[in-house]
Amino acid sequence: KTGCRNPLNFCQNEYKDSFxxxxxxxxxxxxxxxxxxxxxxxxxxxxxxxFDIPSYLIGVIDGSFEIGNLLVIAFVSYFGAKLHRPKIIxxxxxxxxxxxxxxxxxxxxxxxxxxxxxQNGESNLSMWIYVLLGNVLRGIGETPVQPLGISYIDxxxxxxxxxxxxxCVQTISVVGPVFGYLLGSLCAKIYVDIxxxxxxxxxxxxxxxxxVGAWWLGYLIAGVITLLSAIPFWFLPRSLPISGPQxxxxxxxxxxxxxxxxxxxxxxxxxxxxxxxxxxxxxIGMVTYKPKYIEQHFRQSASKANFLMGVINIPAVALGxxxxxxxxxRLKLNIMGAARFAFGTSLIGYILSLFFFAMSCENAKxxxxxxxxxxxxxxxxxxxxxxxxxxxxxxxxxxxxxxxCGENGITYVSPxxxxxxxxxxxxxxxxxxxxxxxxxxxxxxxxxxxCPNKDDCDRMFPYFLALSVKRVLSxxxxxxxxxxxxxxxxxxxxxxxxxxxSLCFESTAGIPAPIYFGAIIDTTCLKWGQKRCxxxxxxxxxxxxxxxxxxxxxxxxHMSLYLTLKKKNSIEKNRQMHxxxx
Length: 582
Known about the structure:
Blueprint: H1 12-42, H2 44-51, H3 55-79, H4 85-110, H5 121-125, H6 128-142, H7 145-156, H8 159-189, H9 215-230, H10 253-264, H11 267-298, H12 302-331, H13 335-353, E1 366-367, E2 404-406, E3 411-412, E4 422-424, E5 431-435, E6 444-448, H14 455-468, H15 471-488, H16 492-510, H17 512-522, E7 525-530, E8 536-542, H18 544-551, H19 568-576
Parallel strand pairs: 1-3
Antiparallel strand pairs: 2-3, 2-6, 4-5, 5-6, 7-8
């Protein structure tokens, strides 16, 4: 009726409108998935405290996202291009949204902090399972968005514009984590039971190790945004008019295994995969636990740690990726030059990382934990007893964590263990008196919360932030690595199989890293919290020296790229055979 005579019965203006709509929708989907993923990272300490679980269990929850990826990656790789790609992406966005809502569900089941709607302690202990299952569903939903979205652009965009469109979409995905961490910063300031309790009755502050922010609120916001991102894809066509030759990424089931075997026998590609796995372990560990490191080592609030991640670290990543591409273009680097450039920047980053070891912050002075009651002068990590003569008649609990700050500048695990016998005021303004363990005469007072005592931390923290920007150097190598990937994966069969294999290896790297990094962090705990129904809860205070040394290898770049220099002849040959359109 419209007089359109092209093969797919689309007029040119209809094609442009549909393709532009797809680009906008895909960019928004990238933004939504990046926002929810980064918000998940920003809430790890809130989840630890809310569900009283150690860091390694948080690692299991975080790694469950990649488990969701692996569950459907084979289906997406093999059948995705044959089906209605926009609608599959829409289904993926809906699943991500449902998973995000499921993560927030425990808050409404448990009820207020310290209470439970179910009135059942055992059910309360297992509420973190909902978070894990929701994250698995998020991983399943996220899987088709990138490969099917990029392949749709690659199939129906002109050759000269395809790379530009992909670059624009990827740029939007970098903006998502900034807003995700800023949302995490905002929600961490708000008390978990906001609207149900009077804030003047709350005796803790956001800097307290027991503070839990409104972690559930951010998941509801992220879930709504992700759900909205699914709407445009339902109205997009399965295919568009093809301008020029079409590069279809399709490999039959009989050719997949032989092609994969040949590809893994390629020495450069195998080295590239190993480097990618090692670097992803480092990156995922850093992104997952760096806010926690800032909180524990430099005694910053969760809100401030997330804010700094959003405004400093994530933009540094984006700047590094952009700088790498710009330098490669300006310097006109070939594959050999790219390898040398990657090695040089990795070496500089490695040397700069060594300075992190010198950025120490003295541990908090806590009687019976880092200090001996009989000698309150020097920090000691020997096993101390919280019981002594001054509190022996108080019948205190050794597992309780309700810290108070004495007039002598020492933190005590609880008012009882400080020997206090009376108090005045309420909430944050409570003052304990007649504390027999504070001072020589035992007549000193104590206030709620830990003593600040972080002058050395405040002096060192700006240098830590400045050195953290070295991530720019680390991410300048990303474009170089992509260049290596392109040179190894020449031909449509290798590109399809290699992309699937790379995604599987990357997902596999993302599963163990948060778990073993969390387990290492747990070994540095000095004082564990106690669950109401018994058992070990979340850690309250860490050995900051041991934490720093165990955590620093997260920031170490890896220089295995140097090995690719030995493969000059094969790389250059492969480069000449590479598909121009890619």
